[in-house]
Amino acid sequence: MAGLIYYITSKATGRVYVGSTTRSAKQRWAEHMHYLRKGTHHSKHLQRVCAKYGVEDLEFSIAAHCDDSEPLLDVEQRHIDMHDGRCMNTAPVSDSIYAAHAANRGRVMSEEEKAKRSEAAKKAISEGRAIRGLWSEERKAAHAIRLTGRKMPKVSQEGKDNISKGLRMMHALKGTSAKQKGPDLRNAFVAAESAAWRAMAAQGKSFREIERLTGRCRRVIARACKEAV
Question: Would the pTM of this model clear 0.70, i.e. be above it?
Answer without folding.
Answer: no
